[in-house]
């Protein structure tokens, strides 16, 4: 997204991606109303909505035996009053397609960054491994947007503040029947949490487990896992036998919540998960990463054009994005400690906490979680123009 925004304003950008394509393990399908709003501001929303996707207008949760509506996106102050669901690789391909017509945009696939280039304590680019050998890419600014296991942040020696998480998540999919419930929803029960995302012909399933217990679950085997899934969502009972190979069909997400104390060094900036890995609670990691990209383009785009990016300018990006990151992580940690930890550690039947009961009783209150998930804190807007001549 940052590459697209910068190329659009005639800044020369090289995006290095270590994989041959964007198709890989599931890592979130949510396209938030705020991201859709950014696409509206860029004039690409209509085209985007022509691509296969689902629209979620309400979120519900089942706690014990009670089903309660939790979030209602229909009142958001955005053009799209829904959460879009689209596989992340389709979304990334779409953004790359939009960026490609700009001559300043260079996307190099199968280019794995292995080290930083430095001169007198200033980062001047990266070294990358490609199928045709090692290449060096020199740049006025290197942006580490390489995710939660960022090599860039590690090589830059930026220190990480780890905030901890009590859970891990198993991701899998099972086929969906037209007679299944239509909603994307979460189910909380004694010691277990299950989240089901409706992807029309299949369910994308997140099975939340206590941290470090995946190995034990695996030893109990697929039939035992299937039984647990069927207990939480009985309509899936006839489909749990579809899970036949743990390695191929079940992915473990070891949840981490952290952030860098300093997001930059001379010549280098980290954004997205590389600057702050988010908990999956609320499914907001993609949103924050996109917002970081927009803020970075807004604050640095013109300076990059004029070759005047100072350390102060990099610090301004961190300052701008620290509050949304901090506030979102605070909420996620509160939910982890007060809800997730308790549910995963419980041995008695659950009933909804009073705050969730209020959401069920007062529909207007559901606008608050919708706002926090769908838009978040300090939403960014595209302030960078498409520069004449950027598009040949
Ligand atoms: C299983 C799972 C489920 C999730 N579910 C959701 C969800 O529902 N909603 C949500 O909002 N968020 C979700 N998240 C979080 C979300 O995926 C991230 O917050 C978001 O993708 C961060 O974007 P990013 O661009 O910073 O990093 P990433 O999306 O991780 O992108 C980093 C990119 O850099 C590439 N890369 C890494 N190292 C190198 C290297 N050395 N050289 C070159 N390229 C490299 C990677 O291949 C990758 O394409 C989930 C995460 C996981 C793992």
Bound compounds, please? flavin-adenine dinucleotide
What class, by secondary structure content? alpha+beta
Question: What low-confidence regions span 5 or more consecutive residues with pLDDT below 50?
Answer: none
- Report the sheet-strand fraction: 25-35%
**Largest β-sheet summary:** 7 strands, mixed
What's this, in brief?
34% of the residues lie in helices and 26% in strands.
Task: Write up this protein.
The chain is of the alpha+beta class and 392 residues long. Helices cover 34% and strands 26% of the residues. The chain has twelve helices and 20 strands. The chain has a seven-stranded mixed beta sheet with strand order 5-4-14-15-16-13-17. A hairpin with a 3-residue loop joins strand 15 and strand 16. The longest helix is centred in the C-terminal third of the chain and has 35 residues. The radius of gyration is 22 Å and the shape is globular.
Reconstruct the topology from this structure.
Elements: H1 2-8, E1 13-16, E2 30-31, H2 33-42, H3 45-49, E3 54-56, E4 58-63, E5 66-72, E6 83-85, H4 88-99, E7 105-108, E8 112-119, E9 122-130, E10 133-138, E11 142-144, H5 151-155, E12 160-162, E13 167-175, E14 185-189, E15 192-198, E16 202-210, H6 214-220, H7 222-232, H8 246-249, E17 251-254, E18 258-260, E19 264-265, E20 268-270, H9 285-306, H10 311-345, H11 354-361, H12 367-374
Parallel strand pairs: 1-7, 4-14, 11-20
Antiparallel strand pairs: 2-6, 3-6, 4-5, 8-9, 9-10, 12-18, 13-16, 13-17, 14-15, 15-16, 19-20
Helix pairs in contact: 1-4, 9-10
Bound molecules: flavin-adenine dinucleotide.
Flavin-adenine dinucleotide binds next to strand 8 and helix 9.
């Amino acid at each position: 997204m940052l590459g697209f925004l910068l190329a659009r304003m005639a800044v020369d950008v090289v995006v290095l991606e270590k994989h041959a394509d964007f198709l890989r393990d599931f890592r979130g399908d949510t396209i938030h109303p705020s991201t859709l709003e950014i696409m509206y501001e860029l004039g690409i929303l209509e085209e985007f909505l022509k691509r296969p996707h689902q629209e979620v207008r309400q979120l519900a949760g089942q706690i014990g035996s009670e089903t309660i509506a939790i979030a209602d996106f229909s009142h958001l102050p955005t053009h799209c009053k829904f959460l879009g669901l689209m596989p992340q690789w389709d979304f990334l391909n779409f953004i790359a397609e939009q960026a490609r017509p700009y001559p300043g945009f260079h996307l190099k696939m199968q280019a794995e960054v292995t080290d930083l280039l430095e001169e007198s304590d200033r980062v001047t680019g990266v070294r990358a491994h490609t199928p045709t050998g090692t290449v060096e890419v020199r740049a006025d600014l290197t942006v580490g947007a390489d995710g939660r296991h960022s090599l860039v942040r590690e090589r830059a020696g930026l220190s990480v503040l780890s905030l901890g998480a009590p859970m891990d998540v198993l991701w899998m999919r099972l086929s969906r029947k037209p007679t299944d419930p239509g909603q994307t929803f979460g189910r909380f029960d004694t010691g277990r949490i299950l989240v089901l995302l409706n992807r029309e012909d299949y369910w994308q399933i997140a099975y939340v487990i206590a941290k470090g217990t995946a190995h034990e679950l695996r030893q109990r085997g697929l039939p035992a896992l299937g039984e647990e899934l069927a207990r939480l969502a009985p309509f899936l009972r006839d489909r749990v036998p579809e899970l036949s190979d743990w390695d191929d069909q079940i992915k473990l997400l070891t949840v981490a919540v952290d952030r860098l104390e300093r997001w930059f060094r001379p010549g280098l900036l980290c954004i997205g998960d590389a600057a702050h890995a988010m908990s999956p609670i609320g499914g907001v990691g993609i949103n924050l990463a996109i917002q970081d990209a927009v803020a970075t383009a807004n604050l640095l785009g013109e300076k990059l054009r004029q070759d005047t990016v100072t350390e102060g300018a990099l610090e301004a990006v961190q300052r701008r994005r620290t509050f949304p990151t901090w506030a979102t992580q605070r909420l996620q940690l509160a939910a982890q400690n007060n809800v997730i930890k308790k549910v995963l550690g419980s041995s008695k039947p659950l009933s909804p906490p009073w705050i969730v009961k209020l959401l069920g009783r007062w529909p207007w209150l559901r606008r608050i979680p919708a706002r926090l998930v769908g838009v978040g804190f300090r939403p960014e807007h595209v302030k960078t123009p498409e520069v004449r001549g950027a598009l040949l």
